[in-house]
Design brief:
Helix content is about 35%, strand content about 20%. With about 100 residues, it is of the alpha+beta class. The chain has a four-stranded antiparallel sheet with strand order 1-2-3-4. It comes from Bacillus oleivorans.
Length: about 100
C-alpha cells in the first residue's frame, strides 16, 4: 500500500515518464514481504531499453522491471539500494523527507 504522496507528485512522475525521462517517485510503503522497508522509490521510464540501461549502472537487472501495460513501467527501489541510488542521482531529499 502506498501513501504519503500527493496526486500532483504522481502526475509529475507520469509526465516525466511520458516525456522519455527517467523519473523517480518515493513514498511510504507497507508490504509484509519487506517489513524492514518503510519506503519505496519507483524509477520509471516509458522506454524500457533506456530504463534497463540506466538500471544496469546500478546492478539492476532488466528482469526486475515491473512492466505495466499503461506505460508506467518501473524498478522498485528498496532499502540501501534505494538510498544509494537517490544519493547518486542527487535526489536524497526525496528519500530523507520520509525518514524523519
Amino acid at each position: 500500500m502506498a501513501f504519503g504522496i500527493k496526486r500532483k507528485e504522481i502526475m509529475e512522475w507520469k509526465r516525466k515518464i511520458d516525456a522519455g525521462e527517467i523519473a523517480f517517485l518515493t513514498h511510504y510503503w507497507i508490504d509484509e514481504r519487506f517489513p524492514e522497508c518503510k519506503t519505496v522509490t519507483k524509477a520509471g521510464c516509458h522506454d524500457l531499453n533506456r530504463l534497463a540501461a540506466w538500471g544496469k549502472q546500478y546492478g539492476l537487472k532488466k528482469e526486475w522491471i515491473h512492466q505495466r501495460a499503461d506505460g508506467y513501467s518501473h524498478y522498485d527501489l528498496l532499502g540501501e539500494i534505494e538510498k544509494a541510488i537517490l544519493e547518486s542521482e542527487g535526489l536524497i531529499d526525496q528519500y530523507l523527507k520520509f525518514k524523519r
